[in-house]
Predict the structure.
Amino acid sequence: MLLEELRKSVLEANLELVRRGLVLYTFGNASGVDREQGLVVIKPSGVDYDELRPEHMVVTDLEGKIVEGKLRPSSDLDTHTLLYREFADIGAVVHTHSEYATSFAQAGMAIPALGTTHADYFYGPVPVTEELTDEAIGGRYVHETGLAIVNRFKGIDPLAVPACLVAGHAPFVWGRTPHDAAHNAVVLEAVARMAYRTLTLEAQCKGVSQALLDRHYFRKHGASATYGQSC
Amino acid sequence: MLLEELRKSVLEANLELVRRGLVLYTFGNASGVDREQGLVVIKPSGVDYDELRPEHMVVTDLEGKIVEGKLRPSSDLDTHTLLYREFADIGAVVHTHSEYATSFAQAGMAIPALGTTHADYFYGPVPVTEELTDEAIGGRYVHETGLAIVNRFKGIDPLAVPACLVAGHAPFVWGRTPHDAAHNAVVLEAVARMAYRTLTLEAQCKGVSQALLDRHYFRKHGASATYGQSC
Amino acid sequence: MLLEELRKSVLEANLELVRRGLVLYTFGNASGVDREQGLVVIKPSGVDYDELRPEHMVVTDLEGKIVEGKLRPSSDLDTHTLLYREFADIGAVVHTHSEYATSFAQAGMAIPALGTTHADYFYGPVPVTEELTDEAIGGRYVHETGLAIVNRFKGIDPLAVPACLVAGHAPFVWGRTPHDAAHNAVVLEAVARMAYRTLTLEAQCKGVSQALLDRHYFRKHGASATYGQSC
Amino acid sequence: MLLEELRKSVLEANLELVRRGLVLYTFGNASGVDREQGLVVIKPSGVDYDELRPEHMVVTDLEGKIVEGKLRPSSDLDTHTLLYREFADIGAVVHTHSEYATSFAQAGMAIPALGTTHADYFYGPVPVTEELTDEAIGGRYVHETGLAIVNRFKGIDPLAVPACLVAGHAPFVWGRTPHDAAHNAVVLEAVARMAYRTLTLEAQCKGVSQALLDRHYFRKHGASATYGQSC
């Protein structure tokens, strides 16, 4: 993907978050990575969405050093770049304070796999990080937020579970492309809404079986996928 | 109904689901059956709703063999066709992941008949299937989903209770026509929203009496219906 | 108010219910009364709201006998006319299945006066009727629904508490004019939403004091009202 | 700020409350203060929002005496003016019955700081006042409402926690400008929605650490702020 295309798709992912009601004012950001060039394209900080143009996107290297752009990048940049360095197969990261996913993050609860909507996108619970220590919060906080995610994902394939809740904060979501990451963020919020209602109806709900999780996840992912028109 | 008319009404039912907010992205499908010709018309899989045209609808026989159409049919086709074979009086099937009905399905709870809105459309609780066994999930899963519904409806008239929740999954809804099936799906979601709130206010709510269920259901259905302008 | 004006204001009240999201499909109706002529103007049954015109309104006498109009009146007519006969000061009645008020009705719970929004409109809890007996349901059901409201209001001034929940069914709301009745129905639903959330946060919430109830209610009503531009 | 500008920004703040869904009918009001001239600009009482023009705004002195304007000022004027007299650094006050914040007020519960969205705007719980005594309610009620807020804020910096819930009533919110006060009211409602869901999922949720509260609050406020494009 050319950098110009990446700028457009990152902008489009940011706008999709707004259209789908995941973002209040400027509380959200999306980025994408060009692996070949080692460049990250990210939304600028605190700019109104309806004024955003592709040329406002900020370009940095994988360490977060600004390469191009006059605006300050999203204040969450260091989380994005750490995820790109640690999760080699992801191509885009989205951060929102979408309300139901954030409510689980605030409660310090993972979103359990309670149904097939979840299983179609997330191969297991959407995990929640440990709380950050006072030292981490007082230090390189944004970087430490990324570290908490990476630590939580030891033993989990980031593309099989493309989202994590940061305890007391909100979700980070990713995917192969900016389009996919935004799509996953929208589905995460729908899954969180349904999990909230399911658990407030039946707190002991134990969720889907491993067999159902496998069936739905592999229906949409991997070599034997049978959903859609693409295969 | 001519096949051409059926295509249009199946498309229209699919669009009604979107307009009423029952469908996120492509998570839903509607079909209709022409009993005389033994043909089923169903939405193609994974196509954006705003691009759908009558000619995109896929036509199959009652065993799900494609008769006409270049696109792959909805991945839930085998559930639809089984319901047509087993429930002789239904003319259309709708499947959505509408969020409140799905939350009950995830909780493994039937939607009890708690009020007259419910009773106007569903003559008794909207039941939930047994959980599918690992063998059923690992086998002809979509067909087995339909079997779980059919098994749950032993002793229930499918036109008196035109919906079923599949445990851990979501609702299937039906009716005499695509219009009716979509309408029933919209009402089911409203009924589920109200049941959720009623039960979270008063978990012991016992619901309407048999007399009230009879009165409301037969007000809109059967020979002595008194609602609307049609009789 | 001339009958022609009343037709228009009854239609307008019906449309306000739709605009404010209180009505799904055709689940609602509003009427108004001309006390001098002894005539009731009511929405016809089961007609789409976007096709409704003033001339579609049905005119009956206070016993529900049709005086003018080609369409069948709302199936709830007998509740409306009974309320007009029994509550001498009301000028309009609205019935909806607005979802939060209906959830309280389904739970068999009155809506307690938990805050000043409630107190501004309803001088005390919005009561819920007794459940109708099987005999009442099997008899003149719609008339009996009105009787249950009237019985519940013994000792309550209908203009001080202009709404009642019918157990297992939904709210009936009234006012001096069709505009006021629709407005009260919209506020009732907002009050019900807030009461639902208050009670699910704090089930033991005891509600406002009599002093606060008095202060807010009489701020908007009666001789010493201080709200708005009209005095 | 010239008085003419203040009228426009007060009107704009009132309209922002409507656009963001915080206001039903006329249940809300915003005001601003010109500290140099000692003048308050406030919405008139009970006027439809879509008819409001800058010239309809009412101008009073800091004691609430009308200086300019033909319309009666908002009935909550005495609360606004008291807050201006007691909280020397605030420039605007907003009052709404936004539904989730009001639900906390009705429950008599502060909104605890459960996450970073809260911490970005409110440096600690959003407090709830004591219930007003019958004497206060029966006396200068609107003034007493302001006093209850002022008493509750002993030891709290009003600009660090720019909102208070009045028990059994609803929130009052403030800021340096009408724009900021309206923005804070919108965020308060989002924070209340998420707190409601968090607490109904996990009633024992203890909220963010002091370190996280500090980090987020000072990220957006004070000399070392790093958010947005302005520094």
Observations:
- Chain A has one domain: 3-220.
